[in-house]
Amino acid sequence: MSSSNPVIYFEIPVNDMKHAEQFYTNVFNFNFEKDDIDGYEMSLFPFEEKNSGITGALAKGDVYKPTKDGVIIYFKTEDINESLAKVLKNGGEILYPKKINEKYGFAVAEFEDSEGNRIALHETLKND
């Protein structure tokens, strides 16, 4: 069994690519690379092979259906409260407010994005 993280890529379903790109750019300051993969419109999240973590894309096509009922993707953030404020400012909705897990040293929250997907935030707590 490999000692690396098993998940390497994700796709977030969208109906309105331009609207979704604007939402994620405004909330996280992402720049996307556009591509067409197997006939599906993709906007790829930033990725550098040498860094840890995974990457993915906003994906539009007949097999992609936005939902709050499926897999939840966690985006790392330095400040959940700031990110949630940006979510609200850009038409998103808070689904699960910030909760702190002192035992493991992190906080999480969940929101609905511009397309109707449930997305989560993860913030590592600072040792003060």
TrEMBL record:
Please name the CDD domains in this protein's record: SgaA_N_like
Q: Name one Pfam family in it.
A: Glyoxalase
Q: Which domain of life is it from?
A: Bacteria
- Give all residue intervals belonging to the VOC domain: 6-124
InterPro entries with a match to the protein in the record: Anthracycline_SecMetBiosynth, Glyas_Bleomycin-R_OHBP_Dase, Glyas_Fos-R_dOase_dom, VOC_core
Cited PANTHER family: GLYOXALASE-RELATED, VOC DOMAIN-CONTAINING PROTEIN
- Record's protein name: VOC family protein
Q: Give the organism, scientific name.
A: Chryseobacterium endalhagicum
